[in-house]
Amino acid sequence: MKHERYLKTDALVMGSIRLREADRIVTFYTKERGRLSAVAKGVRRTRSRIGGRLEPFSLVHVMLYSGSGSLYTVTGVETIRSFQGMRESLLRMEEGGRLFESLRRLFPEEEESPSSFNLLVRGVGRLSTAEDRPTAAKVVLSTRLKLLMALGYLPELDSCVQCGSDQLLCGFRPSMGGMVCPDCFAEEHYDCFSISANGLTALRDLLESPISDVDRLPLDAAAAAEVERAILRTLAHHGH
C-alpha cells in the first residue's frame, strides 16, 4: 500500500535499540498504521529534546517521515501520557513485556487496527497502576485475550467446536478455535489440552469484564496458568 511521506499519529512506544553513536531505532504501535519502526536521530545526546519522550510504554503523538529506506524517521514527538508508573516497577515492566511480545507475534508490521490500539492504551493505562503481581497478570491476560478477539480469534467457550455439545466442556483446541467435549477430546493431538471448570470460567470472565475491572475477578494460580496456556497455544497457531 502506498503511503504519504509524512505521518502524524498517536502511538505507544514499544521499545528501542541503539543505532550508531547517538541514534536509536524505536518501535511504535501506532493508531494509523499499526506496528512500525523509525530512526530517532540524536536522541542519545544529553541535549536531545525528544529522547526523554520516547521511553517504553509512553503514549505519544509522533511525527514521522517515510523516505526511500525501510525505516521511518522521527521528526517530532509530543507526550500524551507518560504512564510513568510502568517504569517505576519491575513487575509492571515484566508484565508489559509479555503484552508487547504477544503484539509482535500477532501483528505484522504496518497492519492497521485502531481497535487494537485502543485496547493496548487501556491495558497499559491500567497496568501502570497495578499494585501487585496478581493484578498486573490479570490485566495482561485480559488485554491479550481481547486482542485475540479484536483479530477475529475469539474462542468458542460455550459449546464444543467439533460436535456442538454444550455439556462437560473439558478441553481446548486452538486449531479449531475453542473448547471441546469429552467425546471430541483428542488427547493424542498436539494442540488439545485439558482445561478445568475454573479455567473455563476464568477465560469467560477475563473476556467479558472491562480491563479496568479485572482486579476484582477471583483468579487462582492454576486457572491463570490454564488461561496463559490457551493464549500461548493460540499465538503459536495464529501468530507470525
Features:
3-stranded antiparallel sheet; single chain; de novo design (two linked rop proteins); 5-stranded mixed barrel; elongated; alpha+beta; 23% strand; OB fold (Dihydrolipoamide Acetyltransferase, E2P); 2 domains; 240 residues
Name the shape in a single word: elongated
Count up the domains: 2
How would you write the strand order of the largest sheet? 1-2-3-5-4
User: Do you know the CATH topology of the largest domain?
Assistant: de novo design (two linked rop proteins)
What's the CATH architecture of the largest domain? Up-down Bundle
How is the secondary structure organized here?
Elements: E1 6-19, E2 23-30, E3 34-40, E4 59-66, E5 72-81, H1 84-87, H2 90-106, H3 114-127, H4 133-150, E6 171-173, E7 178-180, E8 193-194, H5 197-208, H6 221-238
Parallel strand pairs: 3-5
Antiparallel strand pairs: 1-2, 1-4, 2-3, 4-5, 6-7, 6-8
Helix pairs in contact: 2-4, 3-4, 4-6, 5-6
What would your notes on this structure say?
The longest helix is centred in the middle third of the chain and has 18 residues, at 133-150. The chain has helices spanning 84-87, 90-106, 114-127, 133-150, 197-208, 221-238; strands at 6-19, 23-30, 34-40, 59-66, 72-81, 171-173, 178-180, 193-194. It folds into 2 domains: 6-82, OB fold (Dihydrolipoamide Acetyltransferase, E2P) (Beta Barrel); 86-238, de novo design (two linked rop proteins), CATH 1.20.1440. It is an alpha+beta fold and 240 residues long.
